[in-house]
Design brief:
The protein is of the alpha/beta class. Helix content is 38%, strand content 13%. The protein is globular, with a radius of gyration of 17 Å.
Length: 265
């Protein structure tokens, strides 16, 4: 396994099509503010995939002029992203930026994520919430969540051979080639999707970078329960172990086997 050469990361950015995707569930109170903060001209299209919300998320998204796809039932965070990326590829997106519509991440920074990929520097951009411990806690990140984030990130860095400040951000941008290479359609339909995707990006040799992002932990920010967080943490450790075994040639997991993700349903 080798990293792709710089020449392979050339984007031809003069004609690059950029799409913002938003996996949404009951985001009526925060969606409009999140969209309003995206600088004009950032994206050619904003796609919201609604995971069968019980509130006015779809109504508000439609009023804002977003492209809207609605699941007929709640399928999960990972399944929502699968719809986002499948549609983005089908609509010809060259760069795809995921922003959660819960107003936790600062969407004013979106152009910076896109620029690094468009100009061919990196294939994947991550928004790190962990600039300093004091700042993360001052922004409202619960102490137990901060501790869990740091512990899991340290373990994942050791397993993957990376030096990322955070492995669990939901603010991410990808070049089209990443989505066409990684078999993300085989990933979890739940929150482990992001963990698996990042490990796949490392496994397949894509160039990954981070930008620090201020965040807001208000009452409307999406979060998991403590029990769900424990399951997620244990699942992350399992995935880290699986990554190591696959890279060592001991296992041959489907999520690390190349396929054309763009044609999957």
């Amino acid at each position: 396994m080798t990293a792709r050469p710089a020449a392979d990361r050339s984007t031809g950015h003069a004609t690059s099509r950029t799409m913002v995707v938003m996996p949404a569930l009951n985001a009526e109170s925060t969606l409009e503010r999140t969209v309003a903060d995206i600088p004009p001209g950032t994206a050619d299209e904003i796609l919201l995939v609604d995971d069968a919300s019980s509130d006015r998320t779809v109504e508000i998204a439609t009023r804002l002029g977003l492209t809207v796809i609605r699941h007929d039932r709640t399928r999960g965070y990972g399944a929502n992203q699968k719809t986002c990326y499948r549609e983005a590829l089908a609509r010809g997106a060259d760069i795809v930026l995921m922003i959660h519509p819960d107003y936790q991440y600062d969407s004013r920074l979106a152009p910076h994520f896109i620029r690094f990929i468009r100009d061919g520097y990196f294939d994947v951009m991550l928004g790190s919430r962990i600039r300093t411990r004091a700042e993360a806690l001052a922004c409202g990140m619960p102490v137990y969540r901060y501790v869990a984030n740091r512990f899991l990130t340290i373990v994942e860095n050791l397993m993957m051979g990376t030096n990322l400040s955070e492995c669990h951000t939901g603010y991410r941008a990808y070049h089209r080639r990443v989505l066409e290479t990684i078999p993300w359609h085989r990933n979890s339909d739940d929150f482990l999707f992001d963990t698996q995707f990042l490990m796949q990006a490392v496994y397949f040799g894509f160039q990954i970078a981070e930008l620090p992002v201020p965040v807001r932990y208000g009452p409307d920010a999406s979060s998991t329960s403590f029990a769900a967080g424990v399951r997620y943490g244990l699942g992350t450790l399992v995935e880290a172990g699986r990554f190591v075994l696959n890279r060592a040639g001991i296992m041959n997991s489907a999520i690390f086997s190349p396929s054309d993700a763009s044609i999957q349903t």
